Amino acid sequence: MRKRWRFIGLLSALALLLITMTSCGTKTALSDQDVLQNDIKNNTITWGVKADTKLFGLMNVKNSQVQGFEIDLAKAMTKEILGKNGKAVFVPVTSQTRVPLLRNGNIDAIMATMTINPERAKQVDFTRSYFDAGQAILVKKGSPIHSVKDLNKKGAVVLGVTGSNSVQNIGKFAPKARVLQLSDYAQALTALKSKQGDALTTDNGILYGMSVENPGYVVVGGAFTNEPYGIAVNKGQTKFKNRLNKALTKVEKDGTYNKLLDKWFGHVKGFNYEEMKR
Amino acid sequence: MIHIFATQWQSLLYGLGQTLLCSIIALFFSLIIGSLFAIFEIMPNKLMRIIGRVYVEIFRNIPLLVITMFFFVVLPLYVTKINGFTAGTIGLTIYTSAFIAETVRSGIQSVDEGQMEGALSNGLSFWQSMRFIVLPQAFKIVIPPLGNQFINLVKNSSVLAFVAGFDLMYQGNMIANDTLQTMPTFFAVGILYLIITMPLSYYMRHLEKKLA
Question: Residue A180 is nearest to which of B77, B164, B191, comparing CB atoms?
């Protein structure tokens, strides 16, 4: 008898656990506050940025500041919105953490090499594109792989980063290849160096950064997709989104955008500045 | 969360299988290797004692992720091609075996010395007395802490996610990113881990009751 009671106790505890978990999962953490108004009041915009991506957002260990094209662009846009004394706060995010952090209000906007796509547009709102990237592949110099087509065979292994758009794309362009997803770009590159895969795929902007750091590796085949990066804000923050779009237009018109593009990408081999400038 | 189970059950099931497979392989080998080094640690031969001590202290004090990354990144460069699943399983086996060695050693040492002396004076060799007299008693004593190690092992198998081992955690990451339903996905993953660890936990408790 005692045993049976114990069993029932255990069962009900498990059921309780299940109910709590399901209810947690369905609750929305989206606040109804006006982000733009709050930011103007606090004179601060909190940006979610990459801290592991050369040229876009990379943590400088010497002064523990994140540096890159996106950081400079975010600073310029912050100044445009809040005035000269506006403060931009940067929170490092990864592909996995950026949307949850945006939703629970830790960051106001994501500017972290995030490609605009319909699937994501259901979860967040995007501004106009601020950088027109495209997916490409990085291989070791002298590799028999010259384009994405060469990867479409049995036994080919492509490395990517969890949560990035590119791993889903590679399924379309090279359906026969096996895809390994690693947690960040540094790890994916390390895996490529240890021959865990034949090629690394992601957006060309990021691959150029890797190629600059590692001369033994080259971007081949050119871009095979269109991957416009956009700034993501929470659903319903239309005022904030419109203000960001306006600020983006402003920095593009006054030449700041081109200056930043040249500063970060001007020296990169294979990067077409004329095509990318606005 | 139900929705995640309903739509993603294929990848979740595959992940569960990989986690289970890795756990079983690692559990089996870490128990054997661990017991072996435990015996090394208490052998009369000083050299063997040192070997046992060094093994345990090195692998007990290095993070699991570092050991696994070593097998994933360094080994393919110089020795042989090795995939994420194998690298993860080897790393997990070595890491856990160091802890199991310590656990089993404490068990062996808590068996009265007279048992060993008696066995030896009855003409059994060292290994025979270990096998038939000391170890059976030692294992009985260390079942509870051993159970802890086994449960830790199952949970630690999530290290496979970092080396693309296609385990439960890896699939969880992937689903969370595809669907952007982070919370429900990881609750689902948590429940699947419970499905492995709970029976294990209960079985160890049952074993403890039965043998003690």
Answer: B164
Give the separation between CA B81 and CA A45, rounded to whole angstroms. 47
Instruction: Report the distance separating Cα A54 and Cα A205, nearest Å.
Output: 9
Q: Which domains does chain A have, with CATH numbers?
A: 35-132+229-276 (3.40.190.10), 135-220 (3.40.190.10)
Instruction: Inspect the interface and report whether the beta carbons of B173 and A181 lie closer than 8 Å.
Output: yes
Residue A24 identity: C
Residue of chain B with shortest Cα separation from A166: B178
**CATH code for the domain of B186:** 1.10.3720.10
Q: Average per-residue pLDDT in chain A?
A: 86
Contact call for A196 and B84, based on CB within 8 A: yes
Q: What is the pLDDT of residues A162-174, one digit of tens each?
A: 877 788 888 889 8
Q: How many other β-carbons are positioned within 10 Å of the β-carbon of residue A243?
A: 20
For β-strands A199-203 and A157-161, DSSP reports them as: parallel
Looking at residue B41, its pLDDT comes to: 94
**Total count of residues recorded for chain A:** 278
Strands A178-182 and A157-161: parallel
Select the residue from B11, B179, B181, B187 to test the A interface by mutation, using most A Cβ atoms within 10 A: B187
Q: What are the residues facing A219 on neighbouring strands?
A: A138
Asked whether the beta carbons of residue A21 and residue B72 sit closer than 8 angstroms, the reply is: no
Number of folded domains that form chain B:
1
A120 at interface of B, judged by CB pairs closer than 8 A: yes
Q: What is the pLDDT of residues A204-256, one digit of tens each?
A: 888 888 888 888 898 888 888 888 999 999 998 999 999 999 999 999 999 99
Q: Are the Cβ atoms of B164 and A95 closer than 8 angstroms?
A: no
- Residue A46: pLDDT band by 50, 70, 90 thresholds? very high
Q: Domain of B9?
A: 2-211
Structure-derived torsion over alpha carbons of residues B31, B36, B41, B42, reported in degrees to the nearest 10:
110
CA gap B97, B37 in Å, rounded: 8
* Closest-CA distance of chain B to residue A168, Å: 9
Residue B74 with chain A: CB contacts under 8 Å: 194
Q: Which of A32-41, A104-113, B42-51, B84-93 has the lowest mean pLDDT?
A: A32-41
- With beta carbons under 8 A apart, name residues in chain B contacting A100: 182-183
Q: Tell me how many residue pairs between chain A and chain B have CB atoms under 8 A apart.
A: 67
**Strands annotated E in chain A:** 44-50, 52-53, 57-60, 65-67, 87-93, 109-111, 124-133, 135-140, 157-161, 178-182, 199-203, 217-220, 227-234
Taking CB atoms and an 8 Å cutoff, what residues of chain A touch B173?
Answer: 96, 162-163, 181, 183
Which residues does chain A have within 8 Å of residue B184's beta carbon, measured at their own beta carbons?
Answer: 25
Task: Yes or no: say if A252 and A129 are a contact pair by the CB < 8 Å rule.
Answer: no
Chain B's closest residue to A159, CA to CA, is B164
